[in-house]
Amino acid sequence: MHLPKVADAVADDMSNTTMHSLSNALWNTLASPLRILRFAAFLGVAHSSGFLSYSPFSPQSTASANDVRVLILGGGMAGITAAKALHEQGIDDFKIVEARGALGGRMKVFKFGAPGRQYSMEAGAEWVHGTQTGDGPSNPIFDLARKHNLTMHPSNYYGSMTTYDYTGPVDYLETWNKAIRAYANLTVTGGHRVPKGLVDTTSRNGYSMIGAKPQTHQEAASEYYQFDWEYAQTPEQTSLIASSWAEAAEFLAEEQVLLNATVKTIKYSRDGVSVMFSDGTTLSADYALVTFSLGVLQNDDVRFEPVLPDWKMEAIHGMTMGTYTKIFLQFPKKFWFDTEYALYADEERGRYPVWQSLDLEGFYPGSGILFVTVTGDFANRVESFTDERVKNEVLEVLRSMYPNTAIPEPDAFYFPRWHSDPLYRGSYSNWPASFVSGHHTNLRATVQDHLWFAGEATSLKYFGYLHGAYFEGRKMASHIARCIRNARQCDTMEHVDEVMNLGPYGTDLDWD
Ligand SMILES: Cc1cc2nc3c(=O)[nH]c(=O)nc-3n(C[C@H](O)[C@H](O)[C@H](O)COP(=O)(O)OP(=O)(O)OC[C@H]3O[C@@H](n4cnc5c(N)ncnc54)[C@H](O)[C@@H]3O)c2cc1C
């Protein structure tokens, strides 16, 4: 995932290529339970985004009858920033509950490579998007990385490309450049519909409206690079309008984090929340903040008692969860392109299209590591195959790209299965054309004043991104803090009972 969804930010990124790949240093801090303290320390100096501010207050003075005041369900970016925001507002009676043995969620580092040639790789989030332009607002993730002197490498997304198709190396850079311009045009077209109150439609329709209609395999691959590789789904599956929008050493004590604890049931009422774990134990709280991915909520991996209201269910099932899968290979030595990226145009759109070399200056020179990304339905299909089958398909593609090279067996091969992992059920959320703002309000809304939701998917502006999760965690925790402070001032996230049709099919039309 690599581009901001806001049209202006797209333009900024295109002009100064400000995308950065975070180094191992950042993700290594998240890799193991032993590193939680380092991670928390890292967040402990995080940029404050200036949400609600409160006068000094000591919530502990009125103790809760429950186990804790707040249960933060999920220890990814949203969960951690929620904890930090509570702490900043004087509330330390909370517990982060996480199924894995480490914090970090979809920021997930792993060691990859043959013995003696291992490197730290990111299975999930990798880029900091739309870092900063001039004195404008910066991405808080970028601020964190800068404050801690983490090594970042600017990604030359628009200037370091080699192109191939199933006959071998073919120069279609002009076609690819055209697709870059078409995508920028698409986001502008989508953005213009909002102030005019025009109905949403699919991004495929948007492309057709601007006359961008890929006919050849090379055109389809070029479009894919701009679109699917970002949204993890096709233009048909994505809204046109939405495509244009775009520390514990200091504050976390050991008892505030519960690792290896998988939530099975969440019981809620106007009196509070009680959570049951897979081992049958329970914890109760005045408030719970659910930060599980949209995919987890969609797949009933966690049961709610009572069942969530219809308006919430409609919202959860109305948004989609895309899959973005990086397939890593390590070879004895490099035989491929010298650019950062390569694009492969197959006869089938989306078949192993975007390749990235890590055997490059600034990355991991001499590593022999290359990876290819697949998305959406193709990624889900790949997950259902054995590793051996996927490896053979990938090698077959490499052999088409390099017909005159003897491609050896890789020394190492790996890909994460985000779609089938019950802790994620996909990579990040995407906004389909049938999902309207009322749905989004409901995705974010509080249920019975005590059950709150946050995570990348609840962010209106930055859904899908790390910084979306960052802001949402902080925002919801600030609201919860206010409720704890003074129930009368409790400012819950409101919902819409029924999401009505939008014009031109609205109820204001006279059909008689
Ligand atoms: C392959 C991939 C590439 C990406 N690339 C980028 C990128 O380049 N830039 C970017 O900004 N974003 C990127 N993202 C998106 C980014 O990683 C997410 O938006 C962000 O990490 C989401 O944080 P979160 O806190 O909302 O959710 P999560 O990180 O999913 O946190 C939720 C936590 O809940 C836990 N959990 C789930 N179920 C249970 C349960 N039953 N009981 C207890 N715990 C549970 C999970 O283990 C997880 O730790 C990428 C994501 C993926 C997968």
From TrEMBL:
Per its Swiss-Prot or TrEMBL entry, what cofactor is needed? FAD
SUPFAM superfamilies associated with the record: FAD-linked reductases, C-terminal domain (SSF54373), FAD/NAD(P)-binding domain (SSF51905)
GO MF annotation list? oxidoreductase activity
Which keywords describe this protein according to UniProt?
Answer: FAD, Flavoprotein, Oxidoreductase
Query: Does the keyword field hold Transcription?
Result: no
Q: In which residues is FAD bound?
A: 98-99, 263
Q: Please name the top-level EC class of this enzyme.
A: oxidoreductase
Q: For this chain's UniProt record, which GO biological process terms are given? A: polyamine catabolic process
Q: Does the keyword Iron apply?
A: no
Domain named Amine oxidase: residues: 77-155, 229-480
According to its UniProt record, the EC number is 1.4.3.-
Report the sequence similarity comment from the record.
Answer: Belongs to the flavin monoamine oxidase family.
PANTHER family (UniProt xref)? AMINE OXIDASE, FLAVIN MONOAMINE OXIDASE
Q: What is this protein called?
A: Amine oxidase
